[in-house]
Amino acid sequence: MGIINFAPKILDPIPGGKYVVNAIDYVVNWARANSIWPLTYGTSCCAIEMMSSSMARYDIARFGSEVFRASPRQADLFILAGTITRRMAPAIQMLWEQIPGPKYAIAMGACTISGGPFIYDNYAVVRGAQNLIPVDVFVPGCPPRPEALFHGLLTLREKILKETCRNPWHEGQPKDVSTMDRYREAAKTWAALEEMKDEEMAEARAKFKEENPDYKSSFKPIRVKKEDFPEVERKPFRRVGLTQLELYQKLHDKFPGITFHTHSEDPIETVLANAPADRPLEVMVEPEDYVAVTEFVKNDPEFKMDFLIDVTAIDYDDHFDLVTQLRSLQIGHKIFLCVQLKKDFSIPEEKRATSLLASVPTVSHLYPAAEFKEREVYDMFGINFEGHPDQRRIFLDKDFVGFPLRKDFTHPEMIRRPV
Fold first, then answer.
1. Are 305 and 335 in contact, with CB atoms under 8 Å apart?
2. Among residues 105, 40, 34, which one has the least CA distance to residue 69?
3. What pLDDT digit, counting tens, does each position of 108-132 carry?
4. I want to staple 38 with a disulfide (CB 3.0 to 4.6 A). Which of 3, 34, 77, 95 is the partner?
């Protein structure tokens, strides 16, 4: 393309040279517009529709785009299909820089274009692909169907056909729309248009009412009858391993401080005896007994909790609930250990949102997988795990300020959801 762009300087001064340049433009643009090679890359859920567009039913090959390239150096189209997070942004920008020009980008889906439903109360989603790279065509929808993507391809084709040697392709610039609240702006615009419409119709409505004082609308809303579906009986699961009552009694005998939380007024034994077979036993454990209880249920031959499902947490006003989910692969029963961790309110209020407010001993020496699970809890909730071999952030950047899953978390770029 670089050599062809010099054609006007060489041929235009020659008699009839302009027609030769126009012919070159036509041939080159015809070839480029009918052979667009997308990069094999999907940012999120809209990529499912992009993938289906290449299947036999839709056949994207009709538009010369059947060759999805695995290398950005062989592609000339970047289809951003789905939600883009800030952690993905550097990779997307790097891929865009590796695609040789002339190159184009299509933003596919509401989340790609504006952040979609994730625009509010969210620190992690990029509010528009145009913040990262220059976008040529926007394809709205949630998600857009393959036909909409094809319309975007045809729109891009028209744009390519308008490029000439005299007005060659040049890379655009990203547009900063990260702080734009599109939904509030659209709501204000819509309300203003409705008010203008109401003012314009006010005189006509008053005149009609004066001329037809007895008029009554014949419109009657039709209620759609809801279909009654037969109630499907819940089939009870086959019980495997010890019952919840047996697990609780054996644990309580070993650790009397263990409790079972229930909203029922019936005795604990009655509640556990009537619990469904597929419901795990969830017990409250004191922080000082947490490691001992975990070690006991792992090594005891009647429990054999040899598999760590997850370690997660719940944030309340004055405490965290740390939940360790265990299962016995050999026997089949499950136990969830819930540890209530009081928050440290001795920390000044202005520093609490960015400080570690609670501590608990690690169980990574019992379950190696807990090392990553506990890092996630530390990363998102700010809970310190004493004795952890490698406690550092696992998802967020090391200089990230705050803990996103806490209720006191704030971020300067977050847009609050309208009440």
1. yes
2. 40
3. 999 999 888 888 888 888 988 999 9
4. 77
CB atoms inside a 10 Å sphere around CB 397: 9
Residue-wise pLDDT tens digits, 165-223: 777 777 888 887 777 777 788 888 999 999 999 988 988 888 888 888 888 888 888 88
56-81 b/e with 16+ CB inside 10 Å = b? Answer: eebebeebbbeebbeebeebbbbbbb
Given a contact cutoff of 8 angstroms between Cβ atoms, the answer to whether 294 and 374 are in contact is no
| Pairing relationship of beta strands 307-315 and 319-327 according to DSSP bridges | antiparallel
**Residue 169, pLDDT score:** 75
Give one DSSP letter per residue of 241-297, joined into a string: SS-HHHHHHHHHHH-TT-B---S-SS-HHHHHHTS-TTSPEEEEE-GGGHHHHHHHH
Give the residue carrying structure tokens 């990029």.
Answer: 126
Query: Is residue 403 classed as helix, strand or coil in its secondary structure?
Result: coil
C-alpha dihedral (14, 17, 21, 23), degrees to nearest 10: -160
Residues 337 and 326 sit within 8 Å (Cβ to Cβ):
yes
Locate 304 and state its tokens: 């054999």
Query: Coil, strand, or helix at residue 232?
Result: coil
Three-state secondary structure call for residue 17: helix
Cβ within 8 Å of residue 331, ≥6 positions away? 240, 241, 242, 303, 304
AA identity, residue 299: N
CA-based max dimension of the chain: 103
CA distance 54 to 1: 28
- What DSSP state is assigned to residue 82? S
Identify the three-state secondary structure at position 185: helix
Cα(373)–Cα(389) distance, integer angstroms: 13
**Nearest-angstrom CA–CA distance, 274 and 223:** 42
Alpha-carbon distance of 373 to 360, in angstroms, equals 14
Within 8 A by CB and 6+ apart from 289, the residues are: 255, 257, 258
**Residue 377 · residue 312 · CB < 8 Å:** yes
Distance CA 244, CA 273 (A): 7
Q: Find tokens 């390519």 and name the residue.
A: 160
Closest CA to 95 of 132, 67, 51, 140: 132
Considering the entire predicted model, what is its pTM?
A: 0.73
- Could you give the CA distance from residue 366 to residue 242 in angstroms, rounded to a whole number? 22
Residue 413 has pLDDT above 90, yes or no: no
